[in-house]
Amino acid sequence: MTDDIKRLALACKEAAQPLSQLSSQAKADLLQAMAAALEADGAAILAANAQDLQAAREGGLGSAMLDRLLLDDKRLAGMAAALREVASLPDPVGQVTREEVRPNGIRVRKVRVPLGVIAMIYEARPNVTADAAALCIKAGNGVILRGGKEAIHSNTAIAASLRRALRQAGLPEAAMTLVTDLRRETMLELLQLNDIVDLAIPRGGEGLIRFVAEHARVPVIKHYKGVCHLYVDADADLDLAVKLVVDGKVSRPSACNALETLLVHQDIAGAFLPLAAKALLARGVELRGDEACRVLVAEAKPATDEDYAAEFLDLVLAVRVVPDMASAIDHIRHYGSDHTEVIATRNDAHAATFIQSLRAAVVMVNASSRFSDGGELGLGAEIGISTTRLHSYGPMGLEALTVERFVVEGAGQTRVPIAID
Amino acid sequence: MTDDIKRLALACKEAAQPLSQLSSQAKADLLQAMAAALEADGAAILAANAQDLQAAREGGLGSAMLDRLLLDDKRLAGMAAALREVASLPDPVGQVTREEVRPNGIRVRKVRVPLGVIAMIYEARPNVTADAAALCIKAGNGVILRGGKEAIHSNTAIAASLRRALRQAGLPEAAMTLVTDLRRETMLELLQLNDIVDLAIPRGGEGLIRFVAEHARVPVIKHYKGVCHLYVDADADLDLAVKLVVDGKVSRPSACNALETLLVHQDIAGAFLPLAAKALLARGVELRGDEACRVLVAEAKPATDEDYAAEFLDLVLAVRVVPDMASAIDHIRHYGSDHTEVIATRNDAHAATFIQSLRAAVVMVNASSRFSDGGELGLGAEIGISTTRLHSYGPMGLEALTVERFVVEGAGQTRVPIAID
């Protein structure tokens, strides 16, 4: 049976209604039950995953893809633990963000409510099925999950397990709907349903995200890439700046919050670059620098314009020596991706100017770009990250899966006096 | 010369940068200067408006449209006063909405920043040119104004006046850009510029809004219509409920927050409907009711299904008697537009259930739907209203023209320990 995607989406919207009214305790209990269900169904889930892995090997998928696809006891335990962590987070629904009694006596509150129905579009990692469902449900939303075909058996088994927990909690399973018809035209249909789907969140490679953004009629929150910069100011603390560039580049090169380009003020380049290069080269980082950089660092290869625009996601770092902070800011405005930008400086005025002059979702002073992450920034969890400036900007937590609406209480106030005879 | 719309939009994005960095005082002074400029240029603006009016008359536009188009000394003074009111509002930019020091010592703040570039797409009212520009600028945004062709001379004169104030404040005029090439394909081009325009806000008839929503690649915040309901519960205060229905329907029938349908619990219909009908009929309201209503109110005409879905924007009210609150909620879910829904009741539990069961942007208890307005709800001003649940939901004030981003300050913290030898 092929999915009738509109029927599925409508059922999810219907099912989202009781979910939106659940108490915080009921949602926490539900997520605990989902974690237990995953553990109870571990054997079935791993068996389904084995099918996916075999198909992937036969399909000749690379080892990186196979690793993303792989589930084992440890990763299953990690999925269950993640569900329990989400269960323990504060419930954003019902939070009062603004309260005022107007001169006419009406009481006006802004109260967080769920967005409604969220469509998650993702690729090979089966754990996203559980992680994303947990966050959407915690915020009282229905969720439509459309994962990659490589993981279809794993996702189906995980979804079946989580849906059983919904059913046993007396909730409609449709609140969590896995799309099993993975034809591209079906995804296109889903992305057109702007009367049903309140938000689509694509997670994966730039190709997937661009496809979703190009074709969606529903609102999309996305980020394409992270071309993150560290600017080392003239009066930066040298050792501090070296630590930031090493952590930013080396601690997890494949992350979107890893550093891709180092900008150094010319007055400090002579002292800083040899130190930084030594630490980076010792950790296997390839440096691609401009003329001024290569005078100071013999090992640096020449940098091209493409290098300054690149998200390497690898142990490669572009380097440029700049005459002043304004040039660094211009460089970042030209090549940056509005993700995360960092300045190393001891000068508060320079830090303030750097922050004010850049549009990025996350701007940092004397801290590693690798902290640009929902968990590290205190959101508790991360459903995604936005580099577009509407609704949410930067790492997105549970609050980003809600919206504030107005609740007004009065005692018969009217806009004009009404005389009833 | 026809506009190169992309060039104009890019210039506006460039110009938005210095605007985004202005102090609150500088923005307030700028808006005061804009108000003074409008007053100083009053004669030129009225002369331009006279051209528009003459063309409109020659084009055979109706009197309602002519009235929307008309400017006179009183309306000019009103535009200037509106600018001064916006000048006096608190500045949302720079507001810290969240602050936390993480266990590792990094200080994380969420800070409001401007959205960037906002495109306003509107119809005949020339005052929107000044009102919308003022709100966008107050929130530090560049604004691209695309008004209706009926008002092109008025809009050009108003924009010239306001841009002079920008220039005299030492700011790039492009921060406020009026589109004078009103070809539809040019608007389409503008709506495709998702790398430049951060938000489009269409204001006008449902046709314009649907056109923008259908064709935009840029994010759009919209509301199509307001089909607002008053549900009179079994234990409502009768006089209070009569006042709410009269105010909701009569105080300004053409407003989107006016009542269109009255739902009455059957247990109170016999006592309430004759009272309400008397007050409404005395004010010239046409009633269209179901069978049960027409038994109680002889003057009521039969209501059709279309009547229950209609935004009359006129002295017409649809009426239905319902067996219980659940039926009222089902009716609203089916026919409502997620704008504003009101319950009249003395029963707190019923009020809570009504609020929780409805998705509307504004839900009210014992207050007139006509308070569903940015000014009345305490936002200070209103740039528009959203019935879609992303970014902003309901009346939108200055905050809705900003987004929160992360500002992080550290002392060299790294994600992993980094040893520098």
UniProtKB/TrEMBL annotation, chains A, B:
InterPro entries: Ald_DH/histidinol_DH (IPR016161), Ald_DH_C (IPR016163), Ald_DH_N (IPR016162), Aldehyde_DH_dom (IPR015590), G-glutamylP_reductase_CS (IPR020593), Glu-5-SA_DH (IPR012134), GPR_dom (IPR000965). One of its GO terms (biological process) is L-proline biosynthetic process. CDD domains: ALDH_F18-19_ProA-GPR (cd07079). Keywords: Amino-acid biosynthesis, Cytoplasm, NADP, Oxidoreductase, Proline biosynthesis. It holds the Pfam family Aldedh. Residues 3-280 form the Aldehyde dehydrogenase domain. It comes from the Bacteria. It is an enzyme of class 1 (oxidoreductase). Pathway: Amino-acid biosynthesis; L-proline biosynthesis; L-glutamate 5-semialdehyde from L-glutamate: step 2/2. Catalyzes the NADPH-dependent reduction of L-glutamate 5-phosphate into L-glutamate 5-semialdehyde and phosphate. The product spontaneously undergoes cyclization to form 1-pyrroline-5-carboxylate. Belongs to the gamma-glutamyl phosphate reductase family. This is Gamma-glutamyl phosphate reductase. It comes from Pseudoxanthomonas composti. The lineage of its organism: Bacteria, Pseudomonadati, Pseudomonadota, Gammaproteobacteria, Lysobacterales. The gene is proA.
